[in-house]
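May I ask you to review the protein record following this short note?
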Amino acid sequence: MSDDRTRAHVFVSGRVQGVYYRASTRDAARNRDIEGWVKNLDDGRVEAVFEGSENAVEEMIEWCHTGSEAADVESVEVEYEAPKGESGFRIEW
């Protein structure tokens, strides 16, 4: 792993469930060679982990502010963590 690898733990609030937000996040992450996962939370938010190059992770965080076409994002909270070696990008249930 390169030294510029970073990990962001992200919580997205707003109308982000039932609007293809998870599938769009997966596609956007894969297009940027990001590894990690995305899932819906019981409280209506979407939670995601992005691991990859610093630039790619920052692009994904920025992408989350808009998300899928039908989403209405109110806020994006980000916590940075040490990379844990995620492999691939998946939707968790």
About this structure: The CA atoms of residues 21 and 68 lie 5 Å apart. The chain has one domain: 5-83. The two ends are 28 Å apart (CA to CA).
